[in-house]
Write a structure and sequence with these properties.
The chain is α/β, with parallel strands linked by helices and 417 residues long. Helices cover 38% and strands 15% of the residues. The chain has a 7-stranded mixed β-sheet, with helices on both faces. A 4-stranded antiparallel β-sheet has the order 11-12-15-14, with helices on one face. Helix 9 links the parallel strand 6 and strand 7. It is globular and about 75 Å long. 40% of the residues are buried.
């Protein structure tokens, strides 16, 4: 249709209805007048670069000791270089395999990496983030067992628990304090929110004796480079947050959820799955497989409502893992582990109580003799993000491979004042 603009008479009638005489009067309460904008004179590109550089020098370079589900790992420069290529720069699912072999191959390799790290049989091509991946795993468990109860072991990230509760509010799922005949799944985070690593064997055995599914949740999967994968313990579903794999903290997102399952749960796995097939000429190719499970085909009968996914972030994680390789990822994990244990020992020698009683990976909990708010504020004055205040004068502290010995010594000095 043709575009027919409002006439002056139309505009006048509309303004009279709302009690205004001009359009400027209508928008004056929430829009600054252009005549009032205090803009500098135009600049050339060279002048603009110099000006923006001078502004950026006012920023503080903070040392980060904050974890709790988002981790400050080093991101190699090759990642952003490759991710920003035009062939890859999209978050959308590659529905046309004949035109998307490169992206599909990357997603297939992402799934392969997740299976290798978790010790599981099948992975999907990504979910929104770690919290929604956990909630989707609970829905999967309920659909498989025909039960409605969810048992959450102590130590789950409280933000993940809130998302799980939100999912439950929209369904008939119930978070329970006991494992009984109505329990669909048992959820355990390992390492848990306090950073502790626990042996899940006993809890997994109890779960399976009850014919329930065991879900292992991981918030920093770099830990899988040096600890036994949950699949070898007998976990049925493994979910987690892939932000540690080359994705910046970015004030909380966008992030990358992942899910891997045992073979018998494949047809209930939410999201996209990429597989290998052969065409009529016998050539191998990559395709989206088992699509009859998904909402764009089965609507309300689908396994989930996961749709446009985190393809670009899965690509980022794949490039990160491929760039580092097995040895490189192990080096990242060992450095994170070493730095955290070094910081813990130095804080202990300064008289700060260590709450953790079990082994830990790169996060630990301390109890301070004075207000954690004051400690965090004092550290911030020295350009240090000091950790997460979890209440009762307790502070959750995290280290990665980026924290140098000088950073650790400065942290100990200022946290002990």
């Amino acid at each position: 249709m043709n575009y027919i603009p409002h006439t002056k008479e139309d505009i006048s009638k509309m303004l009279s209805v709302v009690g205004c005489s001009t359009v400027d009067e209508l928008v004056s309460e929430f829009k600054p007048r252009l005549s009032e904008l205090n803009l500098n004179n135009p600049m050339s590109e060279m002048e603009l670069v110099a000006y923006m550089t001078s502004l950026s020098e006012k920023n503080s370079q903070m040392k980060c000791f904050v974890g709790g589900g988002s981790y400050d790992h080093y991101i190699p420069s090759v990642i952003n270089h490759l991710v920003s290529r035009g062939e890859f720069l999209t978050s959308y699912t590659p529905y046309q395999p004949e035109a998307s072999q490169g992206v599909l191959q990357v997603l297939y390799e992402f799934q392969s990496y997740i299976c290798l790290l978790t010790g599981m049989d099948v992975s999907n091509a990504s979910l929104y983030d770690g919290a929604s991946a956990l909630a989707e795993a609970a829905l999967l468990s309920s659909a498989h067992t025909k039960r409605r109860g969810i048992f959450v072991d102590a130590g789950l990230n409280p933000e993940y628990l809130k998302v799980l509760q939100t999912y439950c509010d929209g369904t008939d799922l119930v978070i329970s304090n006991t494992i009984d005949e109505n329990t669909a799944c048992v959820i355990s985070q390992n390492p848990n929110f306090n950073g502790e690593i626990k042996n899940p064997t006993g809890l997994i055995e109890k779960t399976h004796l009850n014919n329930s599914l065991f879900i292992n949740c991981i918030s920093d999967p770099t830990s899988l480079a040096i600890i036994k994968p949950p699949g070898e313990f007998g976990a049925d579903i493994v979910v987690g947050e892939g932000q540690s794999f080359g994705i910046p903290k970015s004030f909380g997102g966008p992030y990358l959820g992942f899910m891997a399952v045992k073979q018998f749960l494949t047809k209930k796995l939410p999201g996209r799955i990429v597989g290998i097939t052969t065409d009529g000429k016998g050539n191998e190719g990559f395709v989206l497989t088992l699509q009859a499970r998904e909402q764009f085909i089965r609507r309300e009968r689908a396994t989930s409502n996961i749709t446009t996914n985190q393809t670009l972030l899965a690509l980022t994680a794949t490039i990160y893992l491929a760039s580092l390789g097995k040895t490189g990822l192990q080096n990242v994990a060992r450095a994170s582990y070493h730095n955290a244990h070094l910081l813990q020992e130095k804080l202990r020698k300064k008289g700060i109580d260590i709450v953790n009683t079990n082994p830990f990976y790169n996060e630990f909990l301390v109890k301070t003799p004075k207000s954690t708010e004051k400690i965090i504020a004092n550290l911030a004055e020295h350009n240090i993000f000091g950790g997460i205040d979890v209440g009762d004068n307790k502070l959750l502290v995290c280290c990665t491979e980026k924290n140098s010995l000088q950073d650790i010594d400065l942290y100990v000095k200022e946290a002990s004042i």
